[in-house]
Amino acid sequence: MGLTEWGLVLPDGTVAWGSYKGHSLATPADRARMFLVLSQTAADLSFPDEVFLRHYEWTSRTVADPVPLTDLQALCGDTGPPEEESLPSPISDSLEGLLS
User: Fold this and answer.
1) What is the Cα–Cα distance from 56 to 15, expressed in whole angstroms?
2) Which of 11, 25, 49, 81 lies at 20 to 30 Å from 97 by C-alpha?
C-alpha cells in the first residue's frame, strides 16, 4: 500500500521531503507549524504573508512499502532472476578506472 510522505516545494523548485530546516512535515500539526514558521519568516523580512508564501507549495508522494532485497518474487516477478551471463559487470569493475 505505501506511506504518504509530505514535502515542501521551495522557491527554487526543489522539494524538501519529510522535513525542512529541522521542522518535520509528517503530520498535519507539523505542517501547520511549518506554515507558522514561514509566516514568521515573512514578517521578519518585512514581506506580506501572501507574497512570501506564494513561493512555497505542499506536495506529497506515496512511498512503497520496503521489499527485502532477497525477495526475488517481488523483485523479478514470475520471470525469476536473470541468467548469470546476462548480468551487468559489478560496480567495482566500472569504478576501477576512475580510482586508479
Assistant:
1) 10
2) 81
